[in-house]
C-alpha cells in the first residue's frame, strides 16, 4: 500500500504516522463521521503471497470481530476495521500521552509501589482477555499507553491468536515468530504449543524492568536473547535493586519461572499477589488510599445508648412544651417534629428524574413517615426525614436507630446465619451517586475520572449512576462529600426498609422491568444501558434502586464466615481481607441477586461496567 498520509481509508482521513513495527504501521487519523481523532493500524502485507492473501484477510476479519468484543476500561477498544488496496486495518481510540516505554527510557528504576499501581490494571485487563479466550502474545512497554490522566491502557491485540476450544491446531500452534525477544517466554523459543501463561511471563519481565531499571536478559542479537530466556537462570532482581522488598522479588521469581506450571496460573492470581503485598506494606497509597479507618484511627465519641436517646427526647419535648407559650417554637414546627396524625410525602420527579421531596417551609427536615410516631412508646424522630447534602446536591434519607434481622437462612452460605443487629441512626443517599455529581468531585481534584467514560461526561447520562469506579474511588468521593461508604449492615437495613422480613426491598413479589412499578427493577439485561436514578418506585425508607441498575460498593472487607462472629451492635466488618463487598443486584444480574441479603465481592481496585455506590453519614 502506498503512503496514505493525506489520503483517506474509508471515512478515516490520515493525518500523520505515529509508529511503525514489524507487523503494522500506526497512523493518527480523523474520523469524518464521528468527528474525532482515532488511531488506524495498517497491517503489513509485503510478505504475503497471492496464495496466502485471501486466507489471511479472512483470518484478519475473524480476529478483528473477536477483538472488538473486548470491552475493558484498560484495553483500547477496536471500533472498526476494513481493507484498502489489499491492506487490512484496525481503527482504535486515539490516546494522547505516551507509552510505558518512554517512561522507562532513562533506565532508572521506579518505586515498586508505583510500578504496581501502573501494572495491576494491565494485569486485570489481560485476565479479562484470557477469560474471553484471547491471548496477547506481545506484551511490552510500547504496547502500554499512558493517558494524560495517568491511566495505563493496553493496545496491539492485532497479532493475538484467538484460542477457541473447537478450533483446530493451526490457531493454537507454535508462536515462535510472534512476539518481541526481550519479553518472550521460554516455551515460545522452544516452539512448544503456548497458552495464556506467555502473557504472565511477559508482564513479569516488564515488572522486572520497571523496578530494576533494566531487562533481565541482554545480548547482541535477538536470537541470543531468546536463548538466554530459554536456558539461563533469572538474575536476582535484588542484585540490581538492593532495597527491593523480598516479597516483590518472590512475586517476580514466580511470574518468571521457566516452566509455565510453576508460574501464576492466571492473571487474577498475579494481580492479587501485588495488591495483597501493597496492602500489607501500607506504602502504595495509589493502590490502597489510606482512609481514617485504614490508618487505625478510632472514634472517641461513645455511642449514645437507646436509654439516653429516650431521656434526651423526653427532655426536648418538655422544653418545647415550656417554651411553646412564648412561641419560641411555633405550633407548625412542633407538628413537623412530632406529628400527631399521619404525615405524608409527595414524590415529584423533575426533568432529570431526581426524586424531590415536597418541602415544609418551617423546617430543614421534611418528615415523610407513613406511620404515626407514639411519643411515649417510641420517642424518636419521624421514621423518614430528608436532607440535601450541600456539596453535591444529593438527597439523603434518615434511617432510625433500632434492631433488624440481617442475612438469610435460606440464602447462600455467606448470608448465614440470620442474626439480629442493632444500628445507631444514620443517613444514606436516596439514589446512587450520579455521573454529574461525581464530576464535581473530579473537578475539585479529589476524585479520579472513571476508568472508562462510556457514560461519564456524556450529557445524556448525567443523571445515571456513575460506573467504572473502584472501591477506592467510591470512598474518596464519600469522604469529599462529608460522609463514608455505608457498612454492610447499614446498607441492608436501608434496603429492607420497613419490610425487614421480606426477600426484596419491595416485598416478596418477583421483580419486573416496568419503570415506576412498585416491584420494578432493572435487571437481567432488561435494558441495554443503566437507567436514570429514581426511575423505579422507592422502598419504605424513600430509597431508590437498592436492587437493580448497578451493584454498590460498601465499606466492609469480605469474609464468608463473618456473620457467625460479628458484633451485634454497629458491626463494621472484618479488619482486613482481599475483597470488598458489593451489595444489590445490577442490570446484568439475575433475580436471585436482587435479594436484600445477597452479597458479592471483588478486589477493591477493580472497576466494572455495572458497579457504582452511594454514601452514608452518622446521625
What does this structure look like?
The chain is of the alpha+beta class and 619 residues long. It has 14 helices and 21 strands. The strands form 6 sheets. A 6-stranded antiparallel beta sheet has the order 1-2-3-4-6-5, with helices on one face. Strands 12-13-16-21 form a 4-stranded antiparallel beta sheet. β9 and β10 form a beta hairpin. The longest helix has 20 residues.
Can I get a quick summary?
With 619 residues, the chain is α+β, with helices and mostly antiparallel strands. It has helices at 50-68, 100-103, 112-131, 186-189, 197-212, 222-231, 237-240, 246-255, 267-281, 306-324, 331-337, 435-443, 471-480, 488-496; strands spanning 8-9, 12-20, 24-31, 36-43, 78-84, 87-93, 98-99, 134-135, 144-146, 152-154, 161-162, 386-388, 395-399, 402-406, 419-423, 426-429, 551-557, 580-583, 599-602, 611-612, 616-618. The N and C termini lie far apart (69 Å).
Provide tags for this entry.
619 residues; alpha+beta; Phosphorylase Kinase, domain 1; Transferase(Phosphotransferase), domain 1; four-stranded antiparallel sheet; 14 helices
